[in-house]
Amino acid sequence: MACMPRDPISAAERELDPAPLDAADPLATFRDRFAVPDPDLVYLDGNSLGRPPLGSLDRLARVAGQEWAGELAGAWNHWLDLPLRVGDALASAALGAVPGTVAVTDSTTVNLYRVASAALDDRPGRGVIVAAREDFPTDRYVLEGLAASRGLAIRWLDGDPIEGVSIREVQTALDADVALVLLSLVSYRSAAIVDLDAVEAAARRTGAHVVWDLSHAAGAIPVDLAARDVGLAVGCTYKYLNGGPGAPAFIYVAPRLQARLRPPIQGWFAQRDQFAMGPAFDPRHGIAGWLVGTPPVLSLVGVEEGAALIAQAGIEAIRAKSVALTGYTIALLDAELAPFGCSLGSPRDPARRGGHVSVRHRDARVLTSRLIERGVVPDFREPDVIRFGLSPLTTSFADVRRGVDALRELLTG
Ligand SMILES: *Cc1c(COP(=O)(O)O)cnc(C)c1O
Fold it and tell me: Which residues contact 412 (CB under 8 A, 6 or more apart)?
């Protein structure tokens, strides 16, 4: 029998080849600015804990070895303003916020409690909080605690498991009794993006405050807090912002609310003349009034380095790569995984999708463990979701290809 020529590579296969995508990626060199001790590990969990920037590792060694060891308590002269200095850096690099509106302090959970509590104080007589039933657990727990201690009701939005909370649902839930709406801009499960402008407009009409949790948005999508006249927001710095494990969260209070809302914790870092150690609390104006106690200096410098990398790459370029990475993942899912029982758990429309892709499969939990054994690290979310977290500064298209190939091999046994 005559020897058949090899099939030429089909157009479809060519489109799914990661090499040209990586070659054309303007952010490809940013991976070299991060510690990647095992280049063979396919890390798809940067939306849970971002990789360490090399600059952070240097900085940590210097702050500990020189400033802490050498300057001792004298270093507080330049450490004291870190929460505000890093807040301003983050505001401009990732949040589209003006100086003096962001502080980096405490955890997302604690900041959420503080802004929600102050917002509720500012709407006395209203009895309802609106929030999403599928939101991140700590957000729901905080609200349940606030509601219980104040005798308020929570109106839960069901949302669509893939497309997230719709503006129709929010509009239906809003009335003159709603004091506060809390929503995550990007869903931690499906990556669905909520229509922020529409929610803000609807809440303004009925006089409710809105608090945005930006944990899965910051560093992945532009949020433009100032231009969109957002009032209140909080979020993590250790996910797409690569701040490091347990790095303090950010808190954003718009200028129009800074004089109006009263922070529920009056700590000495919010005191105007902190070291006078005076008898009476006389709060600092602006976002400094939301500081509480002694800041975690070693963690804060990690956030500063993370924000610097976001600034250098540019949030618009980061978003463009994020859209390309998630789109590529979905194209591979359709071609390679859908025939084996996987389905897309994230919005198909890139405008409605954040930085990760949820792949649904009946055996998602076991498959995630098997992937990790093979050096591919996504994470699992109940009940059937494998999250492919795609960090634009460190994830390559080749990583995605290898992750999908490993999953397909497991599925075809
Ligand atoms: C990651 C995440 C948190 C985590 O809160 P911590 O206080 O940092 O533990 C909270 N909310 C959302 C939406 C998150 O994605």
Answer: 340
